[in-house]
Design goal:
With 275 residues, the protein is α/β, with parallel strands linked by helices. It has a single domain (11-255), classed as 3-Layer(aba) Sandwich (UDP-N-acetylmuramoyl-L-alanine:D-glutamate ligase), CATH 3.40.1190. Helices cover 39% and strands 18% of the residues. It contains nine helices and nine strands. It has helices at residues 25-35, 63-76, 90-101, 125-135, 146-153, 160-171, 217-230, 235-251, 267-273, and strands at 11-19, 39-50, 55-60, 81-84, 108-110, 141-142, 177-180, 192-196, 201-205. The protein has a nine-stranded mixed β-sheet with strand order 3-2-1-4-5-6-7-8-9, sandwiched between helices. The longest helix has 17 residues, at 235-251. The N and C termini lie far apart (39 Å). Bound molecules: adenosine-5'-triphosphate and 4-amino-5-hydroxymethyl-2-methylpyrimidine (HMH). 4-amino-5-hydroxymethyl-2-methylpyrimidine (HMH) binds next to β1, β2 and α7.
Length: 275
């Protein structure tokens, strides 16, 4: 007989949708938490029938089921950081905001999933309004992509200066910090993100990785920020570490399916397994 070493690890919670293709949503989040040696817990909001080519169908869970999952986790296991992904409808958004107001969701990273990187709207207009009014003001870090930032700032974003202006404008919605992501920008701006926390305006820049397999980069980035917050890093350090992780995962993106494959979340293992 041998005795288990009881280990304690930080815990993160993702409140997000399922991606049947495994590249984005809950599946990307849990893989990212595991990579960071953070125990991943989840509250599922919806089930998407999705692959590398697009989303075929979305079925929402009842808001009460989302709350029950959150409470089951926070009352027993406890969490150090939380992220939200695809929340889909105003009922789920209001329920999650209520949990945040009850202080059940510490270090809350809100990835305001509204529009895909290719520009197609993923949630209804009422849900966008609910995110803006109920949940975004409660966020620790908000991570809109180019198109989401355009909606939230009511401005066109096509240059670095317009990303910076949008980050500052979106900050006024109430999040403690905003990261405008550049994956949907043209050319060399694809690897450029802009940070604003009311004080520091920073440009986080990596070289653009030439790949079409970018499915789930946004989910992966916000999950990595969440994992780093759970590990005890400050907000800006958590973001810098997360950006570096996504860049490495993009360097080992996976050619799967007929469309945009996912990033390689376990790149050190993948690197050594290739012939
Ligand atoms: N080709 C690329 N090269 C380098 N970095 C990239 C590239 N594409 C995206 N990124 C980075 O990936 C992160 C996610 O940004 P992105 O704008 O793709 O989010 P998103 O649109 O929410 O993603 P998705 O909807 O595909 O999950 C950002 O840090 C961005 O800079
Ligand atoms: C479930 C889910 N969440 C988020 C995104 C955005 O990448 C997606 N495509 N699918």
């Amino acid at each position: 007989m041998s005795v288990s070493n009881y280990l304690t690890v930080p815990v993160a919670l993702t409140i997000a949708g399922s991606d049947s293709g495994g590249g984005a949503g809950i599946q990307a989040d849990l893989r990212t938490f595991a990579f960071h040696k953070v125990h991943g817990t989840s509250a599922l909001t919806c089930v998407t029938a999705q692959n590398t080519q697009g989303v075929d169908r979305v079925d929402a869970l009842p808001a009460a089921a989302v709350i029950a999952q959150i409470l089951a986790v926070v009352r027993d296991i406890g969490v150090q950081a939380v992220k939200t992904g695809m929340l889909l409808n105003p009922e789920i958004i209001a329920a999650v905001a209520e949990q945040a107001m009850e202080e059940h969701l510490p270090n809350l990273v809100v990835d305001p999933v509204m529009v895909s990187r290719t520009g197609s709207q993923l949630i209804a207009d009422e849900a966008i309004l609910a995110l803006r009014e109920c949940l975004i003001p409660l966020a620790t870090i908000l991570t809109p992509n180019r198109y989401e930032a355009q909606i939230l700032s009511a401005s066109e974003i096509d240059t670095l200066e317009s990303m910076q202006a949008a980050a500052q404008r979106i900050f006024t919605l109430g999040a403690r910090a905003v990261l405008v992501k550049g994956g949907g920008m043209p050319g060399e701006l694809r690897g450029v993100d802009v940070w604003f926390d009311g004080n520091r305006l920073e440009v986080l820049k990596t070289a653009t990785v030439e790949t079409i397999h970018t499915h789930g980069t946004g989910c992966t980035l916000s999950a990595a920020i969440t994992a780093n917050l759970a590990l005890g890093h400050d907000m800006f350090t958590a973001v810098k570490l997360a950006k570096s992780y996504v860049t490495s995962a993009l360097h080992y993106s996976l050619q799967l399916g007929q469309g945009q494959g996912p990033v390689g979340h376990f790149f050190p293992l993948l690197e050594s397994s290739q012939p």
